[in-house]
Amino acid sequence: MDSDGYTSDEMDVDSDYHSLLDRREDLTDAICNSPYDLIHYLERAVVYSNLGYPDLAAGDAYRALLLTDEVRNEAFEYHQDAVDALRRYSSTPANLPEVLRYGDLRRGSSDMVNGHGPRGPSSHQELAAIASVRCYQIISISLLLCGCLKSAHTYCHRGLSAFPTNHELINTMDHIMTMGRRRLKKDIVDVADLPEWGVVRREVYPWNTHEPDRFSDESLSMLNHELATIAPKCAVQVSELPVLLDGASDTDGYAIIPTCKQLGLFAVEDIAPGETVLNEYSLLTANNRHKDGNCDACGSALPPLSAERGPVQCSDCYDTVFCDEFCHDKAQELYHPALCEKDVDAIAKDPEAKESDASLYLLLLVRLLAMATHQETHPLELSQIKYIWGDFLSSGNNAIDLSPNAGPPPDWTLPFSFKYNIETPLHVLEKMDINIYTSITYHDIWIFNTCYAKFRGTASARKSTRDGRPDVAAVHPFWCLANHDCNPNVTWEWGGKMRLWARERRVINNEPGGIKAGEEIFNHYCDVELPVQQRREWAQGSLGGWCMCKRCRDESAAGDNGTNNQNEEES
Predict the structure, then answer these.
(1) pLDDT for residue 549
(2) CA-CA to 403 of 20 to 30 Å: which in 191, 248, 284, 372?
(3) Which stretches within 105-200 are classed as H helix?
(4) H or E stretch including 541?
(5) H/E run at residue 25
């Protein structure tokens, strides 16, 4: 052990970690300089794997797989670019790029079958064939590590169809089915029943330079300038909140618990019961019903055609309808031209019930990407999302300990699926005529994950009156600065604009409502009439940890089911 208290093993691990981050940065630069070089994507995928980001590894390997298709098909849009990028690499087994000299692939493509081998004698065809199997290896093992077993099986099966004797893929398939039996608690597992969703790291990535210092005077001044018009009796200030816990704990009865700093809304003047606290308009909305009667911009119900100020259609794509001229003009100004006539209207619409929430998060991401594209800015720099905290954990808490004396792996908290985090976002970008290779600075998978982390727990949703499913969602950046508490002093309604108002009565003991100057505005992101266990399960899924507000702690410590002392008249 050295003088700083670190063992040589720990120092080596730290050095390896920083070396990997440096390597990732170098490869990202290389990809930006040569965006059609599939070898660079595979190399960065391996770095991501070694850093403990299997989701990002799967994303890079998937882009590389798409590029192998470009190489192998002359009719594809980027065929020549992808071929040219491979010219500097050798295809002979002894001189393959290092990332392809892995296991059985060292022998080249001689064992590939079913038309998956090289499509001609050119060296780039040989490289593309071998690289495709390497892509399948990385995608399948990475998705397995994320817990996305169905997609892992799909890509492992495709790899085995190309290279049936590949030992790495055979072993991965065994692991997928073993994990499937464990998770489903069955001896015989139907592939259709394998879980599609897993969890990944929810963090501010070490290379993310877009996350602001939310507590700086500059940030607070900017936020309060914007807030003045929508919540004149409030101010954004730094708040001290309980730290969310991973699960059950004996700390519920403690008088002092761990806290963290977050932004919050505070009253600067007294606010009477029933008085409006905030009135906020947002274009960051989503609707997962195809051709439903909602405004494309604000998400409110469209007025009848007979109304004096009836709905307004886009003049170029008649299927897109707005509730009035204001929403039409705002949409044209801020996002709609990026989607107009791009054939994206049906994507993620009318989903199965189990995918209703996921489709709304995806459509919020699509709207955000359209806003960023039209406004020619980075998605994470948009004001609609920039200052939202995504309930991130530190990279250190998320990291997989690589030391010889490592303990159990961490509990990751960001829900993840191949379909919603990788495949469909890239598909939408292609529909929008965006080059998914040259635009990686704006459209990398870690950017999508960061957006999802910010949406979850802060997006509000409205349920359909027909079937009770969530079908419209929105992100209101100032509304979600009002922190969650299960004994809130405000309630809200969203109908075109998000309106917060002071509760007439509090949930606990039916105490009088109203908010005094200096008090924090406490919002509610879930149904506060639920029992404490269900509220905490909601928080675990949306915020990444159990709610530790005073009401939850008191009810849990008392063994209360969470329904006592509630005001039955106000939700």
Answers:
(1) 85
(2) 248
(3) 123-146, 149-162, 167-184
(4) helix 532-542
(5) helix 8-33
Side chain identity at residue 479, one-letter code: W
pLDDT of residue 209: 96
Residue 172 has which token pair? 């991965």
pLDDT along the chain (571 residues), means of 10: 49 80 98 98 98 97 98 96 96 91 83 75 90 97 97 97 94 96 94 96 95 95 96 96 74 74 95 96 92 89 83 90 95 97 91 91 97 98 94 75 57 93 98 98 98 90 73 92 91 89 91 95 87 86 79 84 42 37
Distance separating alpha carbons of residues 263 and 90, to the nearest angstrom: 54
What pLDDT is stored for residue 244 in this prediction? Answer: 79
Q: What is the DSSP letter of 301?
A: B
Six-digit token pair at 197?
């969703």
Burial class (CB in 10 A: 0-12, 13-18, 19+), 421: buried
Separation of alpha carbons 361 and 368, rounded Å: 11
Alpha helices in 400-525 (DSSP H): 418, 424-431, 440-443, 445-455
Name the 3-class secondary structure at 235: strand
CA 414 to chain CA centroid, nearest Å: 7
Half-sphere exposure of 170 (CA within 13 A, CB side): 7
Strands (E), 301-420: 312-313, 321-322, 414-416
- Residue 454: which of 230, 212, 226, 275 has the closest Cα? 212
96, 42 Cβ separation under 8 angstroms: no
3-state secondary structure at position 198: strand
Q: Where are the alpha helices (DSSP H) in 299-339?
A: 325-334
Q: Measure Cα distances from 76 to 72, 73, 83, 443 in Å.
A: 9, 6, 11, 21
Size (the chain), residues: 571
| Degrees, nearest 5: CA angle 15-18-23 | 120
Amino acid (1-letter code) at residue 108 = G
Q: From CA 548, how far away is CA 490, in angstroms rounded?
A: 19
Nearest to 470, CA basis, from 503, 490, 494? 494
Which residues face 183 on adjacent strands? none
